[in-house]
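RESIDUES AND SHAPES:
===
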Amino acid sequence: MRTAPVCDRCVVAGHQNLPFHRISKWTPVGLENAPLRLLGLKIYTNHAKGKCPGAIEDAQGVTFKIVHINGIHECALVW
């Protein structure tokens, strides 16, 4: 499903619970794949709904590869 272009921050907010979607980003060359991790999405473990209240605000997390039915995703995990 295609939607109107939005900023990186809005894409991340809209995909907090959908971390395995494939996102395209407009560049000077055209549309390119944009992993949600590189847009700033972080997956917080042990919390069903979003960020841990005790997480460090600027924690980058560790890069973790997850195999999903639509491919391999590199995610930023924070705990």
The chain is about 15% helix and 35% strand. The first strand starts at residue 24 and ends at 27. The radius of gyration is 13 Å. The chain has a mean pLDDT of 82.
